[in-house]
Amino acid sequence: MATEFASVLSAPPSGRHRCLVIDHQRYAQAVILRNRPVPWHDAVAYANFFNQAQDLLKPDFTLFDIGAMYEFLIDSDETLVKAMSARSRTGYALKTLLQDEDAAARVRDVVSVLSQTAAAPLALRVPSPLGWLARTHVLSGAGSVHDLTADHAENSSMYMADWLRRLSELPVSLLLLDTRGEGSEHQLPTVDLAAYTPIANVTDHYRWTLGERTHDGVRIAGSSLTGVAIPQDYWRDESATAPAGDFLIADIPPDAVPETVLAQLARLT
Questions:
Q1: Helix, strand or coil for residue 222?
Q2: Which residue of 82, 122, 142, 183 has the fewest C-beta atoms within 10 A of its own C-beta?
Q3: Which DSSP helix (H) or strand (E) runs through 174?
Q4: Assigned CATH for 5-9+20-266
């Protein structure tokens, strides 16, 4: 059974006063793997790598980046890319990707092993529906991001909602839609979280907390709670201070010095 998000906030497993969510994928690859490839292909090897980072950094969630694993699967499977490119209709590539049984099974296996071996509650990060649509639309050769409008977000969210049901048996506490690719500077329109109602219906049904990962931090759907992003420079400068917020989220830069990272972590009591 999943630990409720509110319970983690009120009593962080690390013993900190404020909950800390860490996206350590890039940092752990640099420090633990010494920039060798992430072992996405082997669920046990990936869990071992991931948990080394968890033991070192002691975050209050096990944050898994589903979008990054799908990027690996796309890069390593020409047949999948060809299937995604079979039609030029907007949304076809994303729908094909999310309906691929082999890819979904491989993702589910990694997340399942991770959920069984990690000490902290499970959080999943996925691209926003519009962001994932844009990535697959361009990758498949169907067109450019300029073809897409906010109206495409709802159809994309329906594809993602169907796919999320494959994870129904996993103890997910928090689902984060990464909307950092949206906004005029990224050539995609900004989409209100309300447009992603099909996903919200799934998370409500499974009692997962739904959040939106923005450049500034995390917004929790239906709540005034906010997670504030720790600036990248915090991890490079021991004189830097952490921001205020109901909870904190960090993306540790891969070039950060490990001794400085540990010293700055110790200050987040």
A1: coil
A2: 82
A3: strand 172-178
A4: 3.20.20.210
